[in-house]
Specification:
mainly alpha, about 100 residues, about 75% helix, 4 helices
Length: about 100
Amino acid sequence: MSVRYNDDFKKEVVRAYMAGDKSTVELSAEYNVAKSTILDWTKKYGEECQYTNTTHKNPENDMAKEIRKLNQQLKEKDKEIEFLKKAAAFFAKEID
C-alpha cells in the first residue's frame, strides 16, 4: 500500500531533518517514514525549506505534529501490549 503525503508534511519532515537535532533513523521512527524517503524529500525541498519561516501558524504543520505524537503513542501502546502478553504467558505457566 502506497501512502501519499502532502507537501506541507514533507516539508515539515525536511525542516526537522535540516534542524540537525535528529538523525534520519530517529526521524524515520518519529514520522513513520522511510529513511530513503526523508533523504529524497530533502533533495527536493531542502533549498526551499532553508528559506521558509517555520514560526507562522499552519494547520498542516499541526497535523504533522499530531501524526508524530500519535505514532509515538502507538509505539508505546505496542510495547505495553507486548509486555502484557509476556506477563500473561508467564503467569499461565505458573498456574500449571
